[in-house]
Specification:
Elements (H helix, E strand, L loop, with lengths): L17 E9 L3 H5 L1 H15 L8 E4 L11 E7 L2 E8 L4 E8 L5 H12 L3 E9 L3 H5 L15
Helix pairs in contact: 2-3
Length: 154
Amino acid sequence: MMESTAPTTSPLADQPWGYQLILDCFGCSHDICCDLDNGYEFLDQICDSLEMTKQTQPYIFKTCDRAFPGRPGYSGWVPIIESGIQIHTSAKNHFVSIDIYSCKLFDQTAVQKFTMNWFAPEGIDARFFCRGRDFLSRSMTPRLVPQQEEVSTL
């Protein structure tokens, strides 16, 4: 009797490739939404809080007043070995948006507490996603490449 040679799936094959937490912070002060130094420090310190490794310092940019008059705020990003963290603010709307994407699982509650303490929003809307589900099993599966149709010349 022959033994089955069907491939077995690893428990890791069902794991996601990465994790993403999106925080929308409502009711933040106008001043905090315009404070570039505060945004820089947030990006710098959230990495330490998450025990993630910065590839370089955070980059942060004030919203261009010429292109977007009357819409003060800033955008920033810090690349981390585990992926990246970005922030966008709108002072006019008292809004801060934070996006953390990492291949390393992290404590969502700790991030929300850190953010609440940092920006003091009236409320946070949090969304958590598992990205690239079945990535390992899908990346190991051969892909069928569609053949190109022949073009006839008349």
